[in-house]
Specification:
The chain is mainly beta. The chain contains 1 helix and 21 strands. The chain has a single domain, classed as Methylamine Dehydrogenase, Chain H (7 Propeller), CATH 2.130.10. The strands form 5 sheets. It has a 5-stranded antiparallel beta sheet with strand order 1-2-3-4-5. A hairpin with a 2-residue loop joins strand 16 and strand 17. Keywords: Signal. InterPro entries: WD40/YVTN_repeat-like_dom_sf.
């Protein structure tokens, strides 16, 4: 059954607009530096639905935590990186030197990665704690749905599976030169490698996803924002694709209801983005 993935107010909304749950990248200029703000992921856990929740404010994201990554670009380097949480119209910095966010879909928590390891943020109490004892510089993170295990992508583009409550890591040798990582709802691991090419990690090694346009200029990968049985969400430019564990793919076209819900979320995210930008500029 198709339908945009919606988790009711106070719970998780999994959305990336151009990719699966991702707000398009927002830029603004200040102090001669380019500040990029990217919505990485939203809050935690909930039920799937195909309708937009009704609430008193009319905003789809009322009472939901939306995470943003803010960084300054100097040359080819991203500096002054921070993760912010936006909830009920207010934004707060929750972790400096962070670029990675992944939600736990069964609990009100999100896992954040920064230059010295993994942190867990409780979206109800708004408390942040160090998770485990690893000290890797984490630039990507993905939480399994069926266990407490995580996958992390480090600054040197190596992928590890993190087990035993963040105290042990196992290198995923099949994932080479990874730029992004994501899991599907079955916990299959996908990654973007060199030249924006997507791969799926199978038992017999990494397999390049087939059936996609050649020479993409950009690629974004994540969990799908729609209720599908298998596969991850990939965006080349503005075109979304479903990519499958058997290394095949197909373009995805929103039906009318999905398109309406998708557009409403984008409008609401734009409002949240403006609130967020205004607050951090004050």
């Amino acid at each position: 059954m198709r339908g945009l993935l919606v988790c009711l107010a106070g719970l998780l909304v999994c959305l990336k607009t151009a990719d699966s749950h991702s707000m398009p990248q927002k830029d603004y200029d200040a102090d001669s530096n380019k500040h990029d703000i990217t919505n990485r992921l939203d809050d935690t856990s909930g039920n799937n639905s195909t309708s937009v929740p009704d609430n008193s404010s009319g905003m789809f994201y009322s009472n939901i935590t939306v995470f943003f990554v803010r960084y300054v670009t100097r040359g080819d380097n991203k500096v002054d990186k921070s993760i912010y949480a936006h909830k009920n119209g207010k934004a707060k910095k929750v972790l400096e030197d962070g670029m990675a966010v992944s939600c736990c879909y069964l609990k009100s928590r999100a896992y954040l990665g920064n230059k010295d390891g993994i942190y867990v943020y409780d979206t109800e109490t708004e408390k942040l704690e160090k998770y485990g004892n690893l000290s890797d510089n984490v630039i990507g993170i993905a939480k399994e749905d069926r266990s407490d295990d995580l996958y992390i992508l480090t600054e040197d583009h190596v992928v590890y599976k993190v087990i035993e409550e963040g105290t042990k890591k196992i290198k995923v040798n099949e994932a080479e030169h990874a730029e992004q990582i994501a899991l599907d709802w079955d916990d299959n691991l996908y990654y973007i490698g060199a030249n924006n090419q997507p791969y799926v990690v199978a038992s017999d090694g990494a397999k390049k996803i087939e059936g996609l346009p050649a020479n993409p200029t950009s690629a974004l990968i994540s969990k799908p924002p729609i209720t599908i049985e298998h596969g991850a969400w990939l965006t080349f430019g503005k075109q979304p694709y479903i990519i499958y564990p058997n290394a095949t793919s197909e373009p995805y076209v929103f039906n009318d209801q999905e398109k309406l819900e998708h557009e409403k979320r984008n409008r609401d995210l734009d409002v949240i983005f403006l609130q967020f930008r205004n607050q951090i500029e004050e």
